[in-house]
Specification:
The chain is an alpha+beta fold and 361 residues long. Helix 3 packs across helix 5 (187-196) and helix 8 (216-236) packs parallel to helix 12. It has 15 helices and 16 strands. It has helices at 2-12, 18-38, 105-112, 171-177, 187-196, 204-207, 211-214, 216-236, 239-244, 255-258, 265-273, 275-294, 296-299, 333-338, 344-360; strands at 48-51, 54-59, 66-67, 74-75, 82-85, 91-93, 149-150, 157-158, 166-168, 183-185, 202-203, 262-263, 303-304, 313-314, 321-323, 330-332. It is elongated. One of its GO terms (molecular function) is zinc ion binding.
Length: 361
């Protein structure tokens, strides 16, 4: 009943209002509570406690100065056990376990794993009624610890208990400005961004295609990824490649085998440091070596330039080649440019079609 009422209230609210966001948050909490009730008979493992989507494990001291994310007090692991969410990393005292209000970041990732694509979408303190966006504590402007802290990711203000001035790369700043400077974010955003960093959900081609021209390494990465997708077609028909499991060289970035458009935030960070380009160049060289030198079966699927008629075997992923956009035939780049891009195969097809029409008439 409460869930249905909450849904109706959400429908009646205007879009992008603070009240609607709070209602959505409340709805998620109600659904999680309902799931906990439904799953009541199924007991979790004795060492796991489930609260608001968190899966808490009992821990003892691992390193000095652990802090509770509910009360911000020091966790003295030598004297007592504490709880750690194995999904999002939330830490708290035993006494604070049933007082937490933050939904597990992993639950949010599973329900709606997307990024905020506006840069610091600030709504202002007045819209938050001068209260913390998470714990709803009223801001008291007494000293630095009482001042509201802005989360650069979601544009909301938090108290010092919910915002520890943690630093994180902001996806919107990367996508729009190619800016990887870490910014201050609240604890909830930090945990969410950590879980999202390797999710391939950024379609850079649609969000900001100009970056490929402005960032040289990014353009090179795009070319290598397109080449790898072409090479994949050779490997799928090659018994040797399947036996060697060559495509597993990309197991850490499986989305590279599936498409050339989607990126993770970690991919973009690695582009900025040069790591991704180096990584792909090595894999590209390994794939190319198999197709062009090691495997006779793959070589048999190559092309001969119809302009110069040389015995040189050509492949579409080589930089020295050019592809006809109409029939996908492959030629030497120099030959193709010399003949001003007039594809002999397309010319033959045109003549055949013309002769066929003449016979019909």
């Amino acid at each position: 009943m409460a869930i249905e009422d909450c849904k109706e209230m959400i429908k009646s609210e205007e879009n992008d209002t603070e009240k609607k966001k709070q209602l959505v948050k409340k709805l998620v909490q109600l659904k999680l509570k309902l799931e906990e009730i439904k799953d009541g008979p199924i007991e979790p493992p004795p060492d796991i406690k489930v609260v608001l989507g968190h899966s808490f494990e009992v821990r003892s001291l691992e390193r000095p100065k652990q802090y509770c994310e509910k009360c911000c007090g020091i966790i003295w692991g030598v004297m007592t056990n504490w709880y750690h969410c194995k999904n999002c990393g939330f830490k708290c005292h035993s006494k604070c376990l049933n007082l937490i209000t933050r939904i597990c970041a992993n639950t949010k990732v599973m329900e709606n794993g997307t990024y905020e694509l506006s840069i610091r979408p600030e709504i202002g303190l007045s819209q938050q009624k001068f209260r913390c966006a998470e714990c709803k504590r009223k801001f008291i402007f007494k000293n630095d610890l009482c001042l509201p802290r802005l989360c650069d990711y979601n544009g909301l203000y938090y108290c010092s208990r919910c915002h520890w001035n943690s630093l994180s790369v902001i996806p919107a700043r990367v996508i729009h400005n190619w800016d990887f400077t870490p910014q201050k974010v609240c604890r909830a955003s930090l945990q969410y961004l950590r879980l999202m960093v390797k999710k391939p959900i950024i379609n850079l081609e649609s969000l900001n295609p100009t970056l490929f021209a402005l960032v040289t390494d990014l353009g090179d990465v795009k070319k290598l990824r397109n080449d790898i997708l072409v090479m994949k077609q050779y490997f799928l028909l090659c018994h040797s490649a399947l036996e060697e499991k060559l495509l597993l060289l990309l197991k850490d970035r499986q989305h590279f085998v599936e498409s050339a458009d989607m990126y993770t935030l970690q991919d973009l960070i690695d582009v900025s440091t040069g790591r991704l380009l180096s990584y792909l160049e090595k894999i590209h060289a390994s794939f190319s070596e198999h197709i062009t030198q090691k495997c006779l079966g793959c070589q048999g699927k190559g092309y001969i330039c119809e302009f110069c008629k040389s015995e040189d075997i050509l492949f579409p992923f080589e930089t020295r080649t050019e592809m006809c956009r109409t029939c996908s035939s492959i030629f030497h780049q120099d030959c193709y440019l010399r003949w001003e891009g007039v594809c002999p195969k397309c010319v033959r097809k045109g003549r055949t079609a013309s002769n066929s029409n003449d016979h019909k008439t």
